[in-house]
Design brief:
Blueprint lengths: L1 E3 L7 H7 L8 H4 L13 E5 L2 E6 L2 E5 L2 H9 L8 H16 L9 H21 L3 E2 L3 E3 L7 E2 L3 E3 L4 E6 L4 H10 L4 H14 L3 E7 L8 E7 L2 H23 L11
Parallel strand pairs: 9-10
Antiparallel strand pairs: 1-6, 2-3, 3-4, 5-8, 6-7, 8-9, 10-11
């Protein structure tokens, strides 16, 4: 883990540090699961009694379960990924090609969250009796392919913090009364633990309009199933991303040269 704390989040240097790097808010796209490719056209098939026989690419697949044999052939082909994964990969490659991250559109919902984040963090520190540090960026390792911009790290503990300040109080109430968390937010926290090696990540919502309990949080524990998923996605995504870079005569790291 490499912590970058000489710069501030939101500055040009911060945008430059993130260019081409897979980040927590896009964890679900990075780790999206693949599907088997369809059966190829150039397959020879015959049936003899209960046995099915497929001949493909020099191999002979024989058995009584036709669907299982077809899946064995399909598994030899490159997997199929969804458009969101491909689009995110192209976005990262474009950042490497230009060295730039396009300006994010500013919505009043985003502005509300940004305006209240410091207040939410201070409220969390007071309620928990802890100090929270806010590094600009954290790389998983020296390769710098994966990183996060945490809302906070709990001083003295291997625990991080993800803060949300919902634009509507309805969202806060749903979370505060039902612990309802969007799937992408859980992915965001699990990915952050994968990058840092931490064992827990607070997910907290803050709403200053609530007259009583303004802050609600849950502690999300490290889930090995997510860690395994990211380990597998790491190999496949980097392989495909480097292939896309190669088609443009690019290599990762050129965005910083």
């Amino acid at each position: 883990m490499i912590i970058i704390d000489q710069i501030e989040q939101g500055t040009p240097d911060w945008h430059r540090a993130r260019a081409g790097v897979i980040t927590a808010s896009r964890a679900s796209e990075f780790s999206s699961e693949s599907k088997l490719a369809p059966m190829p056209d150039n397959v020879e098939y015959c049936k003899n009694g209960k046995n099915h026989s497929f001949i493909y690419d020099g191999g002979n697949y024989i058995g009584t379960n036709k669907a299982e044999l077809q899946n064995m052939i399909r598994a030899t082909l490159p997997p199929i990924y969804g458009d969101m994964r491909q689009g995110y990969m192209a976005e990262l490659v474009a950042q490497i090609a230009t060295g730039l991250i396009p300006e994010q559109m500013s919505f009043k919902q985003c502005e509300w969250g940004h305006d209240h984040e410091d207040q939410a963090r201070a409220f969390f520190e007071l309620e928990h009796g802890v100090d929270v540090t806010v590094p600009a960026f954290i790389y998983r390792d020296k390769e710098k392919r994966f990183g996060i911009s945490p809302d906070g790290l709990i001083a003295g503990k291997k625990v991080g913090l993800e803060l949300k300040c919902p634009f509507t109080s309805k969202v806060f109430v749903e979370f505060a009364t039902c612990d309802k968390i969007k799937k992408e937010y859980i992915e965001q926290c699990q990915y952050s633990m994968w990058v840092t090696g931490y064992e827990g990540w607070y997910f907290a919502n803050y709403d200053p309009r609530i007259k009583t309990k303004k802050l609600h949080w849950v502690l999300i524990e490290r889930d090995q199933a997510f860690m395994d998923k990211y380990d597998e996605a790491e190999k496949n995504f980097i392989r495909d991303m480097d292939s896309m870079l190669g088609k443009l005569d690019l290599k990762f790291g050129q965005q910083w040269s």
